[in-house]
Amino acid sequence: MITGPWTAEPGKTFSHNGTHYPVIDSPALATPVQAGGVPIIIGGGGRPHTPALAVRHAAEFNAPPTACSASPAESPVE
Prior knowledge:
The protein is of the alpha+beta class. It is 17% helix and 17% strand. The strands form 2 sheets. A two-stranded antiparallel sheet has the order 1-2. Helix 2 (49-57) links the parallel strand 3 and strand 4.
């Protein structure tokens, strides 16, 4: 739904039959100047859905840092 209007041919309309946000005959006037369109950046920690969306649609994926716990082999010996 975000990139669809950017790829519509000049003078054509864009439609998307979305469950939550349907778009019908949008004039698709806001086309980006840069070739290939505006880079889409997706971020968050919603596994597994968010990374899967990023792989399919995004130019970049940002995730919050996660805590790493040391494995027993890496734990300091007392």
